[in-house]
Amino acid sequence: MTFDTTIGGKSLKENPENIINNDPLEAIFALNMGDFLTEHLISDDLLSKINTSVHDKISRMKNQIQELISIYSLDKTLTLLGFNSEEDFIIYNSIAKTITQMLEIDACHIFLTNEYAKTLNRNSKYDLILAGSSFDNSQELISKTIGYNLYNEDNPAVEAFLKGESVYFKNIQDNKNWNPNPDLKENEVKTYLAVPMVNNSGEVGVLCLENYEEKDILPEYVNLIEITARLFVTSMNLQKLVEEAEQVINDENASPIELRHLRTELTAIIGDIGDEQQMFVESLATAVDAKGQYEKAHSQKVAELAREIAEYLKLNEKTIDLIYYAGLLQNIGKITLPEEIFNKKEKLSKEDWEKLQNHPNVGVNLLMKINFLSEVIPYIHYHRERWNGEGEPEGLSGISIPLGSRIIAVADAYQAMTSARPYREPISNEAALKILQEEAGIKWDPVIIDALIELKQ
Predict the structure, then answer these.
(1) What's the pLDDT tens digit per position in 279-294?
(2) Distance (Å, whole) CA 73 – CA 170
(3) 415 Cβ contact partners less than 8 Å away, ≥ 6 residues apart
(4) For residues 143 and 273, what is the distance between their CA atoms, to the nearest angstrom?
């Protein structure tokens, strides 16, 4: 990062106190006072006050930056899909394995640019370097320095990276430019998706998803991975900015202009992170619905109704947001279950039923790997508890069940009743409210049922 740190030919990287003491004009600029003041208006007394003010301002800005980076450091951002170690190859392998599990694909490989993979392969001849893989022998593969050169534009992974657009082949073997790497078992690959990790924050690398048979990757899954890739880029660039910020905070000669620029960049990229995290959650919920063969936007409708109830109850803004996210992701466990369970026409086996019944716990385990969603875990974990204590997983009752869980449970039940299913028609709003009212105090929190009735009558 480069800052304009000179004014009148003098460097603001010098000691700010010396600059201000020697030149009143520097004090004016340091305080952003503008051109309307002239040098002769700066008395010694005012100069002394400005000097103190500037140092207070520097200290204040450093504290602000420190607070920002303490909230948005590596463990708060790059834990998107299960980072649990500072060892780079373990971090990237964790992402690759989580993606293969969620999307039921055969392999996932992560290639990073030299800039981001330098801790893995310092002397690589490649522009894109293998940094992680879903294979169990991934560490051995990484040590081989497998990668691609950017001049080989015919390679689909390179093409995706250079264009900044995903490249998808139902059967990659039909592509005359396909040059499979046997170390990655690519001679067996049929379906191939390359998703660039590129956005306005920079260019990081490419995600390669592979199947060993011709099998369509659902559009909802492609969208999820594309959003994941963008969030990954922003997270990595935020981490670079955090590292720079830590150096500036420890620099006794840091100038107000440098600190202001840094604070602005941090604030902007943190805003991007927030937007992308919400997009990620919503995309993940859509992928869950697609896999579970729910009515389209089922999770979205549950989340929106849960938010309406929370707002009606006048809960605080943060709690309302957490309830909304929990509503989106209350069926997240199904993303890790085999699609054939949902496609079966015959009676499900006991094992299948156990997998389905246990899906909230699977979802909790997955959410625990998505750091920024950790606060929604209790709401999802207990949303199948019942007011009379006869629910799951722990038999909690009454107000011992988290309020967010009670709200989601009611919203989900109402939405399920009023939505079509393959085996039944939806029931009317009036009929659903009547059933829920009859079960108030047994299954559901009576206060929440009253709120729902007020909203839906």
Answers:
(1) 887 887 787 777 665 5
(2) 39
(3) 298, 301, 302, 305
(4) 32
Among 62-71, 109-118, 146-155, which stretch is predicted with the lowest mean pLDDT?
Answer: 62-71
pLDDT over 70 at 305, yes or no: yes
At residue 134, the 3 state secondary structure works out as coil
Eight-state DSSP code of residue 253: T
Instruction: Kindly report the backbone phi and psi dihedral angles of residue 210, in degrees, each rounded to the nearest multiple of 5, phi listed first.
Output: -135, 140
pTM (predicted TM-score): 0.65
Secondary structure element (H or E) that encloses residue 286, with its range: helix 256-292
Q: What does each C-alpha distance from 189 to 130, 150, 180, 271, 304 come to in angstroms?
A: 17, 22, 8, 39, 41
**What residue type is 145 in one-letter code?**
T
b/e 75-109 (16+ beta carbons within 10 angstroms → b): ebbbbbbbbeeeebbebbbbbbbbbbebbbbbbbb
Instruction: Kindly write down the DSSP assignment for every residue of 62-111, as one continuous string.
Output: HHHHHHHHHHSSHHHHTTTT----S-HHHHHHHHHHHHHHHHT-SEEEEE
453 SS3 class: helix
Cβ(146)–Cβ(181) below 8 Å? yes
What confidence category does residue 72 fall into, taking pLDDT thresholds of 50, 70 and 90?
A: low
For residue 318, the number of C-alpha atoms closer than 13 Å in the C-beta half-sphere is 2
Give the whole-angstrom CA distance, residue 335 versus residue 319.
25
What's the CA gap between 129 and 207, in Å, rounded?
11
Kindly report the length of the chain. 457
What does R_g of the chain's alpha carbons equal in angstroms? 27
60 token code pair: 């204040």
DSSP 234-247: HHHHHHHHHHHHHH
SS3 302: helix
String of DSSP letters for 194-237: EEEEEETTEEEEEEEEEESS--PPPHHHHHHHHHHHHHHHHHHH
Distance CA(213)–CA(415), nearest Å, equals 37
> In Å, what is the CA distance from 174 to each residue of 108, 109, 160, 177, 304?
20, 21, 18, 9, 45
78 and 91 Cβ atoms separated by less than 8 Å: yes
Instruction: Say how far apart CA 116 and CA 136 lie, in whole Å.
Output: 22
75 or 64, higher pLDDT: 64
Contact status, residue 195 vs residue 209, Cβ threshold 8 Å: yes
pLDDT tens for 356-383 read 666 555 544 554 455 566 778 788 888 8
Q: Give Dmax (Cα) for the chain.
A: 91
